[in-house]
Amino acid sequence: MGGEQSQTPEPKPQNCPKAVVLLSGGLDSATAAAQAIADGYQPIALSLDYGQRHNRELQAAQVIARHLGIQQHYTIAVNLAQWGGSSLTDPRQTLPQDGVQDNQIPSTYVPGRNTVFIALALALAEAQGAVAIYLGINAVDYSGYPDCRPPYLEAFQALAQVSSKVGLEGHAPQLVAPLVLDSKVDIVRRALALGVPIAETWSCYGGGEEPCGTCDSCRIRDRALWDAGQPQLVSNQGRPLGQMVPLGELDHPSVS
Question: What residue spans carry the region label Disordered (predicted)?
Fold first, then answer.
C-alpha cells in the first residue's frame, strides 16, 4: 500500500483552449480540475461561498488551485443559506450518517445549488471565451440528488444552447462531467494518477477544522481511500477502521 502519488499536471500555455472548473475544494472537483488540465485545457477555477456549514472547503480550493498551477481562481458569495432547506446550510439540522435510501433525496441536498453554480460557470465561460465547463458531479455516491444525474446535465446543456450568445452562435461551452458514473474508489484512483493532492482536499460536511469521520461524505471517502490502498489518508476521526461501514452498504444505486 503506497503513499500518495504526485504527478501534478503541467500548467497549460496561454494559447490552450480555456475551461471553467467548478472547484469546491472536495476530492471530486479537484479531480475534475486535474482532468481538465490533462485534457489540454487552461483552467479557470470558480468556487462558491454559498453559506455552507463546511466552508473549510474554500481554503482547500485555494490550496488545490495553487498546487495545480491554476492562474485564474474566482471565489464569489451566493448566500443560499438565508432561506434554509438543507442540512448543509443549517447547522441546527443533523447531518445524515446512515446513507441514502432508494428513491429518497437526502437532507444534504441544497435546493437549486447546482443550477445556480452551473449558470454562474456558464456566465464566466462566455465572458472569458472558455469552451468547456468541468464539473465534479457524481451520480453514484449522490444519486439521491436530482442535479447530479446525466439527464440533468443533458437538460442544462440544451439550456446553454438557447440561453447564451455563444449558444445561439452554435458553440455553447460543453458541460464535461468526467466522474459522473465513476465509483468513489475509481475517483480516488483517477486522482492518484492525475497527481491530485488528496490530503489537501476537503469532503467533510461538518463545520469543524478536522474531518468528523462520521458524516456520509466522510464515510464514503474514507472507505474508498482504504479500498484504494491509501489508509494513511483516511480521517479515522469518528470510528475505528474496523467499524467503518463497507462501501456496498453506503453506495447508492448507479444511474444509467
Answer: 237-256
Measured between alpha carbons, how far is 249 from 189 in angstroms, rounded to an integer? 21
Binding-site residue ranges? 23-33, 204, 212, 215, 218
pTM: 0.86
**27-38 vs 56-67: helix axis angle to the nearest 10?**
20
What residues contact 123, with CB distance under 8 A and at least 6 apart?
A: none
For the annotated binding site for Zn(2+), the residues are 204, 212, 215, 218
In the numeric block, the cell 494559447 is attached to 15
Spatial separation of the C-alpha atoms in residues 205 and 26, rounded to whole Å: 10
Q: What is the DSSP letter of 198?
A: G
CA distances from 97 to 64, 78, 213 (A): 27, 27, 10
CATH homologous superfamily of 18-250 equals HUPs (3.40.50.620)
| 142 and 254 Cβ atoms separated by less than 8 Å | no
pLDDT in tens, 143-187: 578 899 999 999 999 999 999 999 999 999 999 999 999 999 999
Q: How does DSSP assign 34-89, residue by residue? A: HHHHHTT-EEEEEEEE-S-TTTHHHHHHHHHHHHTT-SEEEEEE---STT---TTT
Q: Where are the domains of the chain?
A: 18-250
